[in-house]
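ok so heres the complex, four chains, lmk if somethin looks off
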Amino acid sequence: MPVNSFENYPMSWKPVLPRSSRPLYTALAELLQRDIASGALLPGTKLPPQRELADFLDINVSTVTRAFKICSDKGLLSSVTGSGTFVSYDVNTSTLIIPENPAAHHIELGSMMPETIPQADAITILLKMLAEEECKNLFQYSYQEEPRHKEAAAHLLNRLGLSVTDPRGLLFANGGQNATAAIFAGLFHSGDKLGVDPLVYPGIKGAAKLFGIHLVPIRQENGEMGRSALLAACKNDGIKGLYIMPDYQNPTNHIMTLSCRRMIAETAQERDLLLIEDGINSLFAANPLPPVASLAPEHCIFLLSLSKTVLPALRLAYLQTPLRWAAALEQALYHINLSQSSLLLEIASRLTLSGRLEHLLAERRRGAALRNRLADKILSGYTLLGAPECLSRWLLLPEGTSGQEFEAMSSERGLSVYGSHRFAVGKEIPVPAARIAVCAPETTEELEQGLHILKDLLDSLS
Amino acid sequence: MPVNSFENYPMSWKPVLPRSSRPLYTALAELLQRDIASGALLPGTKLPPQRELADFLDINVSTVTRAFKICSDKGLLSSVTGSGTFVSYDVNTSTLIIPENPAAHHIELGSMMPETIPQADAITILLKMLAEEECKNLFQYSYQEEPRHKEAAAHLLNRLGLSVTDPRGLLFANGGQNATAAIFAGLFHSGDKLGVDPLVYPGIKGAAKLFGIHLVPIRQENGEMGRSALLAACKNDGIKGLYIMPDYQNPTNHIMTLSCRRMIAETAQERDLLLIEDGINSLFAANPLPPVASLAPEHCIFLLSLSKTVLPALRLAYLQTPLRWAAALEQALYHINLSQSSLLLEIASRLTLSGRLEHLLAERRRGAALRNRLADKILSGYTLLGAPECLSRWLLLPEGTSGQEFEAMSSERGLSVYGSHRFAVGKEIPVPAARIAVCAPETTEELEQGLHILKDLLDSLS
DNA sequence: AAATTTGTCTATTTACATTTC
DNA sequence: GGAAATGTAAATAGACAAATT
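and the predicted structre for the whole thing:
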């Protein structure tokens, strides 16, 4: 029996365990899950200490721990030894980032789509391929890895400042998300911890949840990961690695400084971290800083997706991994995908090796610059982070309006944008901000229209 | 201290725990893993009972259980309450089924490739697409699911005897392996059990291992799953579902009888099982039997991959799922793939809706029939299971030669085939047999050459 | 058919590490 | 800076269930 009566001590959660034959820990976990889903427990709520709950329910602490662990693994809770257990901030936020139904006639400024236009080169190449005699294997399996494809991959990676030393470290995935999923499946275990920026691409949050990986936000100094916070995460949370996007971080568009890149590379070597460097935007940079993978090549897997910078339909990402992880990663990719499409691989390789990819990139940069000039002009006076070559901008909101509220208000006005809550990790309340995908609308007219709606909305808030 | 001295009682495994600060259970698990990898513990070996080991090591039984569980999850062990723990039969067999390096000049009769030729229709369609005005979205993201693609999927599923009642139950994956991975990631948890035939497609074994799912072989009656064995697996192993391939099962090519289909459908409904029906070969059947999914539509996810029957490079599989699993499955697919390639989706839909797919199928059937006639003729006198429309045949070997040995002997003679050990699940020694992929060689001449080598080898064995 | 063997699961004990105050 | 609060992980005890003999 519980020793004390708790009626005088307010507890944030007083579950009533059903008298059932079910195991205590599953019953408790389900209660917790239900109460979070129903809204009875709001994001940020501090749960009672495990010992107090155990006492209240007259069960053992470890039984509570076990129930909490189940919910933690699902991303519902985040706990810190010494401070307590909290309901995660982003539990009820979808990580599916898909454009609104076009029938709704929303102006799409949410989803990270590149401009639709620049694809003439791809079509030319495809036509040429189909006219060739040897095209008979274009629709066959792509098992026999033609060295040409690895050459193309190496070429692009070199262009970004990586040195490809061994082709066995080069692998293919069906896009960046697919590459991340394979890394999680093949190199991580459920329950492993991965350090990330406090605001990250929602796809990572979703993939981490799917594979039971805990994201640990690393506190920032000057807008990027801080050394002391990173060391603390290694020591206290036992993070296995880091996910980083040094070039044009999604969603803030921050370009990581060289000193921070060096710091991360050194820390990874000291603490034997597994770095996942997402170079999805790196091809946009005219003069990119050295990737972290070049500073810590034995500790970093570099992802180069062609979806955002080249063509989404290629569904292709190149991976470069240190050899010690190559076998496990190759297996995971094989068991998730079996193979790549020979047709798409071939288009990508020809685009790269023919040099037409550079023209396409230049076109993308031109298009983005035009759109970003529009955004800067129309929203002048507001803080719009990001460079002219970015697919999206990060709009800081006037105090008093959360990202979530702003997203809702925009939606009422026929505009899709994504509030900062969608990118937030852990229990912290995110800064009020929203991501504006300037390249997503089909036409610049539509973009202009959307930006004016945004401006009016912002004006009305301040 | 241990009560007895064990020196007089032979134990199959006498590990020596290192004096380390590491947790006991991890240390023990690693020892076990090393001894299996090194060959000190051979497949099939029965390990000492957990209590005996615990006593010997002077630790608790549960600590041994925990160590064993780690290895079990990796597929190294299989244990049965009451009988003991055994080293799995297939631990050291790769589940990567990839053709030999072509430089080795092997004749490829191992990998399940369809014939290379029939793709003229696809090229015609692709050329037409590229000539159209509206082709501007072909290289863009495919988020806006054009209803046309779901129409095409529904058309093919209907053709196989399924009734598509709700388009929300229709989903897309990057091929059959990718669909399976998404089902495992989204609907299963690590440690869940899945019933399968005693011999299965190695891709399933690999994916199951990747996601920590235990495969439970269901004993057969008359060459297919038996009711009593299935019930036993439900009751004793607590299997969550079944993976089945009723049409031309890989590798045995067995076509499941209608009564067995009914039995599985009924059992799934009684025991609330999650059925995964792989229809990868179903389009080959001229008059297919009703799929299990049509008999138990609320309990069955049907997979229709286009890789083997249509074109491998399309990397496309259609999934039909009961609505209760649709959301979780869609999320898993999203977080693993983000999206499909619009280009490939479009080719597939046009092939289907234009009716050209039927021509292509007919061509595949013709080609397969020709190759299978060759095989039947050259290997007459030997048991070669499978129908004329199959991509591969299942060769029963003379007694005394295991599949593994036969695979090695073939390889010495410049021939790739896959022995039955690659398909075996659990601790049973597989029947001596090998899979002969008659459609894999580029030319029929090469096939003929390969078959003659096989015949000579077989003759020399009997 | 009953007793025994054997694996599995839940809940607990205990030690420990970090944060907070 | 030390004590208290708080979460975590390992090892254990004991009940249970299936298979064997």
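quick notes: Chain A touches chain B through 61 residues (CB under 8 Å). thats all i got rn
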